[in-house]
């Protein structure tokens, strides 16, 4: 198996187009055409993780956090990022990162967190915009079903929990083929009238190439008329954070103890209790203070995330409980997610989970 085959599975689950503009997800070191010896899964790519990959015969490390986040102007080994780069390249170890793209997909990092708490009726807390497009095309009536089916199979027509969504309007099209054309219907040089269906379907931007290929392969016309337009609609399946409900409301202290237990953290920093039960819970893996107002407006009783600064705790304003569980602790189950993605696709392939605890924060 080649590295590109592993990457394709991850990016089918979490397309790179879903990463934030500041991010650096993707293949950081190595060649996608290398044959895979084995894969090591980790949250962070540290020197110890590269050593582990060497010892365990892995030439591909898949991490959540990109070891190279900004540009590297020099690689002299003066810091841990440069030392990791040198060692990985020296030992022909490829390093791949799936970061905010994995955060933003509905079944990604936040879903892992929600699963640990048993949250139900989960939704993306802040859906992203600019990730959807719409295809308009015109098809002879007799071929409309074949084209629809091909577009649906390619991934078009999904809106929320509904699939195979399309709009179809009957009309009449005209065309006149030039000399040398071989039209599916009509005669070259003569205007032809054809009963057609105007077909509209929505699709995520990363599937555009696949959608257009399906259209051209299934459409009977020699020249296919179609339009692709960008939409500003919020994509409910992709975005930051998640919100859901506990099966049963919990007393606040009991809830915080439950959170501490489920996320195996040595410390939960939290805002003053409100004397109200906790039922609706918002959460975000990693640094999530930017979603606090969204969590409040969504009616959450508690918001679980990490990396809150001192003054940001005041912003809760007694409208919910902030529970800061630590950056590592909020994302530690990402390794399980990587493992599930790969073993679900490759049933006879067993990637290795790193045994290195990369959390740089300790608790006394």
TrEMBL record:
Keyword annotations from UniProtKB, A to Z: Metal-binding
Record flagged with keyword Zinc-finger: no
Pfam families found in the cross-reference section: DUF34_NIF3
Top-rank taxon, per record: Bacteria
InterPro entries in the cross-refs: DUF34/NIF3, DUF34/NIF3_bac, DUF34/NIF3_sf, N-reg_PII/ATP_PRibTrfase_C
Keyword Metal-binding belongs to the record: yes
Family to which the UniProt record says this protein belongs: Belongs to the GTP cyclohydrolase I type 2/NIF3 family.
Matching PANTHER family: GTP CYCLOHYDROLASE 1 TYPE 2 HOMOLOG (PTHR13799:SF14), NGG1 INTERACTING FACTOR 3 (PTHR13799)
Protein name: GTP cyclohydrolase 1 type 2 homolog
Organism: Chitinophaga nivalis
């Amino acid at each position: 198996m080649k590295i590109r085959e592993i990457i394709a599975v991850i990016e089918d689950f979490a397309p790179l187009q879903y990463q934030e503009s500041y991010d650096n997800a993707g293949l950081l070191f190595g060649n996608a055409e290398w044959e895979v010896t084995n894969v090591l899964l980790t949250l962070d790519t540290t020197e110890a993780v590269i050593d582990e990959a060497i010892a365990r015969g892995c030439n591909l490390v898949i991490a959540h956090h990109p070891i190279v986040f900004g540009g590297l102007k020099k690689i002299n080994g003066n810091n841990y990022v440069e030392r990791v780069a040198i060692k990985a390249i020296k030992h022909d170890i490829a390093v791949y990162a799936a970061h905010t793209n994995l955060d933003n997909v509905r079944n990604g990092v936040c879903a892992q967190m929600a699963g640990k708490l048993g949250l139900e009726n989960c939704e993306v807390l802040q859906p992203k915009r600019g990730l959807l497009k719409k295809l308009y095309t015109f098809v002879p009536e007799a071929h409309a079903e074949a084209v629809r089916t091909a577009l649906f199979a390619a991934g078009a027509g999904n809106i929320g929990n509904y699939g195979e969504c399309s709009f179809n309007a009957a009309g009449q099209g005209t065309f006149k083929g030039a000399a040398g054309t071989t039209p599916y219907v009509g005669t070259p040089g003569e205007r032809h009238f054809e009963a057609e269906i105007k077909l509209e379907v929505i699709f995520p931007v990363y599937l555009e190439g696949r959608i257009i290929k399906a259209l051209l392969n299934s459409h009977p016309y020699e020249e296919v008329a179609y339009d692709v337009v960008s939409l500003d609609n919020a994509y409910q399946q992709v975005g930051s954070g998640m919100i859901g409900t506990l099966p049963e409301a919990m007393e606040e202290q009991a809830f915080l103890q439950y959170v501490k237990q489920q996320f195996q953290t040595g410390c939960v920093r939290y805002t003053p209790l409100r004397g109200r039960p906790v039922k609706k819970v918002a959460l975000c893996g990693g640094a999530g203070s930017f979603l606090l107002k969204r969590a409040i407006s969504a009616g959450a009783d508690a918001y679980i995330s990490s990396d809150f600064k001192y003054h940001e705790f005041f912003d809760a304003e007694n409208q919910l409980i902030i529970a800061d569980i630590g950056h590592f602790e909020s994302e530690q189950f990402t390794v399980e997610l990587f493992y599930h993605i790969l073993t679900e696709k490759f049933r006879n392939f067993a990637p290795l989970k790193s045994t290195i605890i990369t959390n740089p924060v300790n608790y006394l």
